[in-house]
Queue: 4 jobs
Job 1
Amino acid sequence: MPRMKIVLDSTCDIPREWIEKLDVAIAPLHIVWPKGDQEDDTRDLQQIQDFYRRVASAKELPKSSQPSVGEFVSLYQQIEQEGYDEILAICISTKLSGTYDSALSAAEQVKIPVFVLDSKLASAAMPLPARRARELEKEGLNAEKIMQVLEQDVKNGRYKAIFYVSNFDFLVKGGRVSRMQGFFGSLLNIHVGLWIDPEGKLVPFEKARGTKRAQEMLINKALNLVPKGSKLRLLMVDADARESTKVLLQMLKQNYEVLDVSFTEMGKVITTHVGPGTAGFGMEVVE
């Protein structure tokens, strides 16, 4: 069997313990502050928590930038030097970032075979196909065949991403939603439910006052997308709102057969666009 390395970009919000377990390399996106200071989007917990504090009090939000083609080329070459035979790169939705294009362009410039997947996902939904890839590998599939299965999974809606934001201004400033929606969001001081649709777009679907209503809103959205009683694997995610994700998990368990669950923190790039106080989950619907 060829040795396969999985590459995820840093918007994946992968639990730290999964990085080694799934043999994953992370291609970091970058944070650029208004005065020009830059930092990488890392999975270091202390850095992430420090970023929550800084971005919450920032008068002007930083911007994010994708990894360059050259950065992907260097990463692929390093993986080849480590003795791997092939690479499966799983990237954030092309509707949200140009990271996929960088990863794909770089793949054409290296000797090692690289298969690049547009996950049409972001945040806590992205590590789920990475885990699935390792399970398929154990069944004897190589990277090319795994890629084909994952593409079909994505097409069939096997993975979902649903969450709410507590400060809609972050989405407006980041240019992810219209200004009119942002005006109503800030005016009423409400939580806004978001999901990533089948095309990979970030779509607001409802508003709710207060955390409890916001949690109910997410569960109702999940039930609209996935029938009650389905078997799920979950990855709960938050930006400094862990208590809310714990409540969401209990609510999900009341409606679904939860096979396994992990918790993770939103990284710097995702938090830049949705803000601290965000909570939600990635779902894998198991057949």
Note: The two ends are 27 Å apart (CA to CA).
Job 2
Amino acid sequence: MERAFRFNRPLSVLFFDIDDFRNFNNTYNHSTGNIILRAISERCRSILRTMDVLARYAGDEFVALLPETDIASAEAVARRMVKKISADKIATTFGELGVIISIGVTALSEKRTHDSALIDRANNAEHQDKQGQKGIVVVAL
């Protein structure tokens, strides 16, 4: 983040969570939840570039930093991630389970904000208008 701001380079942030993840742990077990978390991580890495950074933020929440990526390109990446994850079921001891993620997308702006504020903006976008909706991508400018 510091390099992107210092050299005035684009940087986008994706913040996403697994819709209704708590149901996987409650219906099946935490081992199944862990299988789902690992599968989501692997699928996201298959879409992201090697220079992108993917991290588990908390629980079922993830953050991806996309250097040299403008907001329009980041939104396209987010839509590919939502599509791939919802299309491919995850094999577990309880059978194949479908998973859906929702993503908030934002980008570094000319006005410097604290790094955590950028992640918070993507997080807030992900939660915006999510009421009852799944598999959404929301962009916060």
Note: Strands lie at 11-18, 53-58, 61-67, 90-92, 95-97, 101-107, 137-139.
Job 3
Amino acid sequence: MKRILVPIDGSPRSLFACEEVRQSFSPSAFEVILLMVNEAQTYAKDVPDNADEIAAEIERKLDEVAQDLDKYQVIKRTANGKAGPRIVECAKDMGVQMIVLTRSTKPNLANVIGTTAKYVISYAPCNVMIAQESRAGSLETYRGLIYRKAESVVNLRGQLSLKQSECLLPCVKGDTIYHVDVTRGRVRLLHTSYNSNTRDWDIPPLNGQREFYDITEGESVDIPINAENATGRLDRIRIVNRNMKTEAVFRYRITRPTT
């Protein structure tokens, strides 16, 4: 049986590689090597105080993703160090015929080949497939939920579901306040600006605003946002469920700042 190496880091984007495997490779002909690399521990001497906790979290995430690939024979692997070299090393050791990964797992680099993917493409001992991703640039192909009201309650499924693990919130001109109250789970609000070169919303806000906010269950935050930029297009405000399987529930409300 042939082997496919799928490196993941637990982010929503990295899981598109698993979706690519399900759509492109038969479980009767391929087995999957799932790899997670702990880049926080680059050298053996750099052992953090919470090393056991980090290792347990990595194992938990691998188990959850493996369950979602239940039709395949899955082998789970972990490694410490820089992701690129460890992925190539694992591919050589496991004798894989294909590596499937995303361009990048950073939220603001939708159309850019990241440093890890570049390294793997350059040094891999086998073929490399870059997983296709849905793009927030086209509402017609966007795979998340789209909200147009100034106030609503949102329920997002875990990242493994892919299709409804994130949403787009409405944007309006001028200064606004996004009130976000999380009643279950963990979410991340992502603020991105339009890139005229790629024709997508894949760069940080152009006016110095924060790129993201992490909000956990029981927290209520007020986030100041101005969605206008020099391109003449409004920015994009996305909220992503940070949990793999557990749903996230939050309420948002968009208002003008009081003077």
Note: DSSP finds four helices and 15 strands in the chain.
Job 4
Amino acid sequence: MDTLFGFFSAFWGIFSFSFLVALTGAMAPGPLLTYTIIKSAQAHKRGYLMGIWIITGHAILEMGIIIFLLFGFSFVLKNILIVRAIGVIGGIILVYFGTSIVRDVYLGKIPTSFLNTSQYTDPEPPTHYENGLNNPVVGGIMVSMSNPYWWIWWATIGFAFMVQFDISFQNWPKLFAFFLGHEAGDLIWYVIVSSLTFFGIRYLNKKAYYGILVCCGVFMVLFGIYLGLSPFFKGSI
């Protein structure tokens, strides 16, 4: 009985701590948050589920990096050349995505017939908005990968957490608690964000809707430039 109690105590302890750490990080502004807002705003129906799909992709990537770290490759993510390469490639992806949003708003390619407004109606029924990051699961993976600071977090804070709590393949209950708690923290916040965005956007007119998309697109461009350049101002990690 004591052994069983100890097992659940350790499981929920790791789960809770991992959950809180992930939730704190998820609430910080970043490209994944901006991407979630954009995708939820663009959805014509069930946009409140975008947070689930995006975090599904994010979780797949994080499962991979946890396995990567458990095999002893944390030193790779601390290499400044690798971080710079990730920053440049990721920055290009984010700049492309942001400029695509701004361009399509300017060209009027984004349908707005789903908006609750009497000032504007589209002559054509809404069509599915196409973009290079159209699939939210794939987008969750790509946008997460594009952020070099996500890699740095896992190489430092994430890996330190795993060492501190003895997370390993052998201690699979701890590994499961750590992963489940981390993804639960991300999931709860991003479902809240996607739900508020999807239901709130219905009460906007066309100009306000386009304004939000342009602001998000510009933020994504600026964030991409920042992520691409900032690793070059650091000599080591």
Note: The chain has one domain: 2-233.
